[in-house]
Specification:
The protein is of the alpha+beta class and about 525 residues long. It is built from 20 helices and 15 strands. Helix 2 runs parallel beside helix 6 and helix 3 packs across helix 20. The chain is globular.
Length: about 525
């Protein structure tokens, strides 16, 4: 039975997986789900073997990331042998930026193939287009050797069972030591790779690096005499935004309403909260209406760019870089990217706001994506794992330096010991290698030691107050199948309320509808998965 694009997107992948593998999907009876959850929780995760070859200038913890003020002068060549087998290896991924030059016109890509010992053939799509492209490839039975699977991919267990390699024997416990840089990925990130009672993928970790708070143009605030913005509550937060808004000068405080930050400010749970085995969605929080009312007040006060609700993310980033907006809500990854895209010159400076007490910051999503290997690939599992291991070489190694920055003289120039990307380098290196595998983020920006200092400082401030998503590592069939659609519906209601098109009182019935259309099933399935592990 073939997997059509419609069945994949519509949630019919389970039936197709049964036909292909003879294995029922997790959408069966409660006892089946409980057995699956118990089998997943029984999997021995890969051992954690921390890389100690480079000493950070700003040491991290199990939560705070290591910070580096400069790149080591003599990077360690950590992998002696080429990981490839001499034959082309195919990979499919999303690309967050512009599609780069093809391999025949891309000297970085050509140098990569030489280092790998195999030609890496990459099929790319933009972030927005990637889900449809993935669905089409699944339906056509045309999957590459290495597959980037976003967390929102519908019914991941069935897809992995039908089409991808069970990696358990290669990675469980101390077996992962054969791939030391995969072993350098902390154990908690592997929880998101366990399905069908086995390890089916390699994680691309994020966690703290994806923690999302208000980024602000420090240079613009300093120019107005604001040196250390630290609003103690929403009223002070709104006053700060008003001070930075000047519509006649085409300037607004915010690129968009920061609803996730407002929820943190009002002490709302991070996605799902667990208390005594009972799960509660952040949609259900009593303070949810307060957060939306705060967002409505911001829009009504005119501190949000009036085009924010129709603008694409790329346009909002241009507003921030161009000084049209002073604040944007984004992560530590974006913090560095803003410097790469800087159009304001040497004065450009970014910093991040904390969440005032009693509010609590949310820990970022654990994974960007997981990476699986096609079951009928002509390459050995060991070869594909070696490639992933090479891609996960951490900061301070020669492999990391090449993977992130390319070749000196073309993709980057040395400034002291720091690799500063050239314009050519920014374009040519953006081929998505970080979505095969990656190490945890190092706090570092070439030639700008003040940036990791600021990042490390804010991480130390928030580390002990972070709120985690209680659903991480627990599978819900309804979340996988219906979650993105229902999120879209709720986001539309949020936006209409904040724009004044609906009253805040419309939120409670919207939550009731969400519960009846899938929210209650999500809760039940998460609770079943949680109970199975107790």
């Amino acid at each position: 039975m073939g997997l059509s694009r419609r069945t994949f997107l519509g949630g019919g992948l389970a039936a197709a997986a049964v036909a292909v593998t003879g294995t029922p999907m997790l959408s069966g009876c409660a006892s089946d789900k409980k057995n699956q959850a118990a089998a997943n929780l029984a999997v021995k995760l890969p051992a954690y073997l921390r890389f100690t070859g480079v000493k950070p200038d700003l040491p991290g913890t199990d939560v705070v990331l290591d910070g580096f003020l400069k790149y080591p002068a003599n990077p360690i060549k950590a992998i002696a042998e080429k990981p490839g087998d001499g034959q082309p290896i195919t990979f499919m991924t999303n690309i967050p930026g512009a599609i780069p030059p093809t391999a025949d016109r891309n000297q970085f890509w050509q140098a990569l193939n030489e280092r790998l010992g195999s030609e890496l053939q990459i099929s790319m799509a933009s972030n927005d287009e990637y889900p449809n492209k993935l669905a089409t490839r699944v339906a056509g039975g045309d999957l590459p050797d290495i597959i980037n699977l976003p967390p929102t991919t519908p019914q991941i267990p069935a897809l992995l069972k039908a089409k991808c390699v069970d990696l358990t024997q290669h990675l469980t416990g101390d077996a992962v030591r054969n791939y030391p840089f995969l072993a350098n990925i902390p154990t908690q990130y592997w929880k998101g790779c366990v399905f069908n009672g086995g390890i089916y993928a390699v994680p691309v970790p994020r966690g703290m690096s994806r923690t999302t708070l208000p980024l602000y143009r420090e240079d613009l605030l300093v120019a107005k005499g604001i040196k250390d913005p630290a609003p103690k509550n929403f009223d002070e937060f709104l006053d700060l935004a008003k001070e930075l808004t000047a519509p006649k000068q085409n300037r607004w405080a915010w690129t968009k309403p920061p609803i996730s930050y407002l929820r943190q400010l009002f002490g709302i749970a991070n996605q799902w909260k667990e208390e005594g085995g009972k799960f509660t969605s952040f949609y259900e929080a009593e303070e949810g209406a307060d957060a939306l009312e705060a967002g409505r007040k911001m829009v009504a006060a005119g501190v949000i760019n009036p085009d924010s609700f129709s603008a694409q993310a790329s346009q909002r980033k241009q507003w921030f870089n161009g000084g049209i907006a002073a604040f944007d809500i984004d992560s530590f990854v974006a913090w560095n990217q803003y410097y790469a895209d800087n159009t304001a010159g040497d004065s450009f400076s970014v910093n991040m706001l904390d969440v005032p007490s009693p509010g609590k910051p949310w820990m970022g999503a654990a994974l960007n994506n997981i990476t699986a290997f096609r079951k009928d690939s002509k390459h050995s599992v060991e070869t594909l794992l070696k490639v992933a291991n090479w891609m996960a070489a951490p900061f301070g190694t020669e492999e990391y330096l090449f993977r992130k920055y390319g070749v000196q003289g073309r993709q980057f120039a040395l400034q002291g010991t720091d690799p500063v990307p050239t314009k050519t380098g920014v374009v040519e290196t953006g081929i998505g290698l970080q979505y095969i595998a990656d190490s945890t983020l190092a706090l570092y920006l070439a030639g700008k030691p003040d940036v990791p200092r600021k990042q490390h400082a804010i991480q130390e401030k928030i580390a002990k107050r972070l709120v985690y998503d209680a659903s991480y590592g627990l599978y819900s069939d309804t979340v996988s199948k219906d979650g993105p659609r229902l999120v879209s519906v709720m986001t539309d209601v949020e936006n209409q309320i904040m724009q004044g098109k609906k009253p805040v009182s419309a939120w409670a019935p919207a939550v009731k509808d969400w519960l009846s259309q899938g929210g209650e099933k999500m809760r039940t399935e998460l609770q079943q998965a949680y109970e199975a592990g107790r």
